[in-house]
Design a protein that fits this description.
39% helix, 13 strands, alpha+beta, 300 residues
Length: 300
Amino acid sequence: MALTAILLPLLTPSLARAETVIERAARTGVINVAGPTNLPPYSFLTDQKQPTGYGIEVAERIAAELSRYLGKPITVDAQPVNDPATLFRQVKTGELDLACGAQFTWEREMFVDFTLPFSLSGIRMLTPQGRLSGSADSLVGKRVGVVPDSLGDRAIKALQPRALRVPIQGLSEGVGQLVAGQLDAVAGDSLLLAAALQRTGAKGYGLVPEAPLARYAVGCILPENNSTFRNLANLAVAKLLQGYLNDNKADQDLVNRWLGPKGLLDLPPQLIKDYFQNVLLTYEQIQVPAPTPAPSVQAP
């Protein structure tokens, strides 16, 4: 009896193996995606309380790639998770399949897997123009809003321990406090700060210093040991980036809606293209169909 108890786990390994994301998606037709409700341009709620953003649309592209692989419809179930620690824990444990818009760090890479990046950002400070230079000396005694234990919090602590780091719940809330005159600056992701400021409509603010205090890529995270799902997610991201480079309208419309001209951030297209090209340089070039030219109209 004792020998049977010892051998049983070895004879039935499938009982101990966790279901992969691919297997669960094939069974349910759904991938569970999460993101904050206050993190434009990556993830936030519309006025109708529906999740939207660059990260949500990338997740939908990944679901479409998974659908082609499995030969069945796969939908995205987007769930709100505003606490970053909870979000990473739920992805790590497999409670969530995907979260897009995560800042890459080597520490995080030890616990979750990252896809190819689809954005680049860095840590800077938003402040009224002319108030702070962003140097260590300019921060002494200044009230700098930071999300506790975030990359921005750590960067300010390392740069100037004598800055007054004021805890904020999120960058959108922090920008609101800055505009209300309660803070001298808010430290965090440059793109997120710019998007949060744009939503307020406030003028006369700028990002300092000119060079970010820290720079990192932004992509999606997924549970470890899901190599097939990660490969499909990478393929979906690569197709989006290559499509943008190839002037594919659907891909350019998606990216520009959040990052490009007349979008949430209004970044120059060439800047976006340069970064996408750098991401793809070490991978096989994806063959994305060229846009079909409009038919010529013959004069009667």
